[in-house]
UniProtKB/TrEMBL annotation:
Sequence similarity: Belongs to the chloride channel (TC 2.A.49) family.
SMART domains: CBS
UniProt KW keywords: CBS domain, Chloride, Chloride channel, Ion channel, Ion transport, Membrane, Repeat, Transmembrane, Transmembrane helix, Transport, Voltage-gated channel
Protein name stated in the entry: Chloride channel protein
Ranges of residues in domain CBS: 601-670, 715-780
Location(s) in or outside the cell: Membrane
SUPFAM superfamilies: CBS-domain pair, Clc chloride channel
Length: 787
């Protein structure tokens, strides 16, 4: 079954070329006038499977909509002012804890990476100083191999969802997709240890994406009271036992993760707003900013401790990671040419990177389908290749004499960090390629961003560095280890940015280090398509406010150029994984289709009566996988003007609530409606917040099958409904904006004998691929629009 699921996802994620070719072979002119213009298949069907991390999982939607049944209304009316204040205080307390724990864990990860990688590099340099180059190579490769093996084994065997950055899954979760096992305690532990191992192993990946995932895991675990098997059942924690509040908390965790990665509090908030969050409001803005402020305080406290020499090899420094504020920034009219050029190059290279990475990830999907051994083999092969390149390529670079004018810099140096690595060069010379390769990724960025060093790097060395990191960036992302995209893209972009600065020479007054910063920003905008948050992150990273105007120009140009070719890298990954993410902009052809036509293409909707027989409820739950069922009442006394015996659409009841009814044996011996006090005796609002349980776990006797159950008190009486004539595009915007799980379609005309319900739509029904499979002629018009 799992093998079939993976095959389905791999096929569904790619372009539907075979279908479009079949559509082109048909002749639309052969249709008779009596046939409808839009031909469609019989049913609108889908497979609720997606790749979460590296594991194929059955996915569902989240209940972000407020379920206004009788119990909810009673609880809301009975809440005192003290309980409301407790609820607000709890949300702010958890936001504080999210920032505190994310900052502590991020600091520990940085300490572990710097010390492990630092001692490894010092041991290698000691062997090189003794001219034991082969032993240095063996030690370097073996250490990286072991570190990668630890990260890969943990991800493959214990937490497949910890592989990758985790940002696409977080983005899908905040969009309304329940990504299973994505925020568990095992995933959190594996993500922390795996990030340390993968980054310390020198792989071309960063810890920024994993830190976003780590922050989200912390937020989710705090919100639900701990891991599933050891959950704390404190009463005050039950206030947050719903998807809406957990969504807000995970948003705080994501912004805290970005803040911890880049030491950028404002950038973290804007990243959550621009990139991952689908739903936003001012109260959420305040809490995310509060969380990032706590992260900065924690980081600052640990930095003070490290400055006192208490952190081993962890370098000294402040909140600014890549400080370029010591160089004056002056602009001239001629400088607009290289700035525009670097923006165009960033957009072109970013879109090209996305396109090639898309092909590589599809290939990796095929390899990963073969089992755990192949996943491990792929990860370890990439580790060996990376180690060989990082160690051997510096031997191709020529030794450069130290510049005596830089008296404040140590040249050459054999320390683990520094701008002038001696490597295999004689005294008084340094190897510029070793300076960039035989170091940690953070130090490599710091070195290539260095200012007032126009002659430090040879153009050939920068070309080798750029080509190598392009290859490593493509083959490393997608292996079964925690990995981030930010740092590899920064390294690639800074290389061609510095090269462009060297090519401009005396024609511009902008420093080469600043060109490297602009190059990194342009490639990130060209690949990830972020602008506002990226601009602020780079300003907080480099501490140079004078870069703001040209950084804005570069980001806007890069994003515009990239958007003309393909989507952002995270949207590509979402498509590859098969996650039903609803985009903010519906396809133009969706305006030519109504929700009524979409409902006609689905199987008939399954409804329940307000007072239903237990056997009918059990039958529906056993034979379907639907998560919501419309509740209708026949023969109700209508308002004035309607026919006698009209059918009323009472609302929508969730599958989990039906399971609670069966578990608690809330059955009636006669067919009648219950009183309000009867419901409150049996159920609380806490019971209805639980989502666990399966129909197979519920035992119902034969006598109980003949009894009745009153569904009215548990039914959401105010579900979102739309008229059948509404366009699919408009319905999709509403569905996404409100965060719905179900949307009911009602008829345009109310008449005797007309059912009160046309159909029901879910997010899977609104996915473009599923619609095109049911309406093939829409695919034809779509392909014509492309041409």
């Amino acid at each position: 079954m799992e093998q079939d699921s993976k095959q389905y996802v791999a096929e569904a994620a790619g372009p539907h070329m075979e279908e479009e070719a079949d559509l082109e072979a048909r002749d639309p002119e052969s249709n008779s006038l009596s046939q409808p213009l839009l031909k469609r298949n019989r049913t609108l069907s889908f497979n609720p499977l997606a790749i979460v991390g590296t594991k194929v999982s059955h996915i569902e939607s989240l209940d972000y909509e407020i379920n206004e049944n009788d119990l909810f209304k009673q609880d809301w009316r009975s809440r005192s002012r003290v309980q409301v204040l407790q609820y607000v205080f709890l949300k702010w307390t958890l936001a504080c804890l999210v920032g505190l724990l994310t900052g502590i864990i991020a600091t520990l990860i940085n300490l572990a990476v710097e010390n492990i990688a630092g001692y490894k590099l010092l041991a290698v340099i000691a062997l090189i100083e003794k001219e034991r180059y082969f032993m240095g190579f063996i030690y370097f490769t073996a250490a990286n191999f072991l570190l990668t093996m630890v990260a890969a084994v943990l991800c493959v065997c214990f937490a497949p969802t910890a592989a990758g950055p985790g940002i696409p899954e977080i983005k899908a979760y905040l969009n309304g997709v329940d990504t299973p096992n994505m925020f568990g305690a095992t995933t959190l532990i594996v993500k922390i240890i795996g990030s340390i191992g993968a980054v310390a192993a020198g792989l071309d990946l960063g810890k920024e994406g994993p830190l976003v995932h780590i922050g989200s895991c912390i937020a989710s675990l705090l919100g639900q009271g701990g891991p599933d098997n050891y959950r704390i059942k404190w009463r005050w924690l039950r206030y947050l036992n719903n998807d809406r509040d957990r969504r807000d908390l995970i948003t705080c965790g994501a912004s805290s993760g970005v803040c911890a990665a880049f030491r950028s509090p404002v950038g973290g908030v804007l990243f959550a707003l621009e990139e991952v969050a689908t739903w936003w409001r001012s109260a959420l803005l305040w809490r995310t900013f509060f969380s990032t402020a706590i992260v900065v305080v924690v980081l600052r406290a640990f930095i003070e401790i490290c400055n006192a020499g208490e952190c081993g090899l962890f370098g000294k420094g402040g909140l600014i990671m890549f400080d370029v504020s010591d160089v004056p920034v002056r602009y001239h009219a001629a400088d607009i040419i290289p700035v525009v050029l670097i923006g165009i190059i960033g957009g072109l290279l970013g879109s090209l990177y996305n396109q090639v990475l898309h092909k590589v990830l599809r290939l990796y999907n095929l390899i990963n389908q073969k089992g755990r051994f192949h996943k491990l083999l792929l990860s370890l092969s990439v580790s060996i290749f990376t180690s060989v390149c990082l160690y051997c390529l510096p031997f191709l670079a020529a030794c450069t004499p130290c510049d005596s004018s830089h008296a404040d810099s140590v040249c050459p140096t054999n320390d683990r960090s520094g701008n002038y690595k001696q490597f295999n060069c004689p005294k008084g010379y340094y190897n510029d390629l070793a300076t960039l390769l035989l170091t940690t990724n953070d130090d490599a960025v710091r070195n290539i961003f260095s200012t007032n060093t126009p002659s430090e790097y040879n153009p050939v060395s920068l070309l080798i560095f750029f080509a190598l990191y392009c290859v490593l960036g493509l083959i490393t992302f997608g292996i079964s280890v925690p990995s981030g995209l930010f740092l590899p893209i920064i390294l690639m972009g800074s290389a061609y940015g510095r090269l462009l600065g060297m090519a401009m020479g005396s024609y511009t007054s902008i420093d080469q280090g600043l060109f490297a910063v602009l190059g990194a920003a342009s490639l990130m905008a060209g690949s990830m398509r972020m602008t506002v948050s990226l601009c602020v992150i780079f300003l907080e990273l480099t501490n140079n406010l004078l870069l703001l105007p040209i950084t804005m120009i570069v980001l806007l140009i890069s994003k515009t150029v990239g958007d003309t070719f393909n989507p952002s890298i995270y949207e590509i990954i979402l498509e590859l994984k098969g996650l039903p993410f609803l985009d903010a902009n519906p396809e133009p052809w969706m305006r030519n289709l109504t929700v009524g036509e979409l409902a006609d293409a689905k199987p008939p909707v399954i409804t329940l009566h307000g007072v239903e027989k237990v056997s009918r409820v059990v039958e529906v739950l056993r034979n379907t996988t639907h998560n919501g069922f419309p509740v209708v009442d026949d023969g109700v006394v209508p308002p004035v003007g309607l026919a006698v015996g009209a059918t009323e659409l009472h609302g929508l009841i969730l599958r989990t609530h039906l399971l609670q009814v069966l578990k608690k044996k809330w059955f009636l011996t006669e067919k009648r409606r219950t009183e309000e006090w009867e419901v409150r005796e049996k159920f609380t609002w806490v019971d209805l917040a639980e989502r666990e349980g399966k129909i197979e776990e519920v035992a119902v006797t034969r006598d109980e099958m003949e009894m009745y159950v009153d569904l009215h008190p548990l039914t959401n009486t105010t579900p979102y409904t739309v008229v059948e004539s509404m366009s699919v595009a408009k319905a999709m915007i509403l569905f996404r904006s409100v965060g719905l799980r179900h949307m009911l379609i009602v008829p345009k005309y109310q008449a005797a004998g007309v059912p009160p319900l046309v159909g029901i739509l879910t997010r899977q029904d609104l996915r473009a691929y599923n619609i095109l499979s049911a309406f093939p002629h829409l695919a034809r018009s779509k392909s014509r629009e492309k041409h």
